[in-house]
Amino acid sequence: MASATKAFVRQPYVGSPEEMESIFRLRQEVLGEPIERSRAIEEEFTSDASTDRVVNAAAFDSEGNALAAGHISEDDRVGEWMLRYICVAEGHRGQGLGTELVEYLAHAALQRGAKIIEVKARQGDPEATENSDRQTGSVDFYRRLGFTAATPSYFRHGIQHLRMSKRLPGA
Asked: CB-based contacts of 29: which residues, under 8 Å, 6+ apart?
């Protein structure tokens, strides 16, 4: 990964409390995810006995601020993994961090037996501020990375989503 990127895997390293808080703030800014919900989700994943089933990755600037973050976890279906909470800070989009993050997580999942990765891509939030990622969605980003629609679009929390999947090379 790029020099600005620090990747961490759940086992044995989870990330310092400061790094995790920076990731939670980024999720809130980009995805509208309340910080308390992010903490609860992380506690659920870190309490999972099989930590090989979850991989986190993040990019930080020199001051410890999260620039990009996300994780991938094994789904209930054998060989399928789900990308979750993929986000890149607004001032750092278009520089390849999101692509690098997704490729890193896909490779980590492939090493753990994944054949297919999926993501619930946002198609846009009509109430988000103009020109924000929350307004325009992320479907085109994932299409550029080789993902295709796996289901018809649906609404979740008032935002239209599209479940997308990608078969991993060599799987």
From this structure: 87, 89, 90
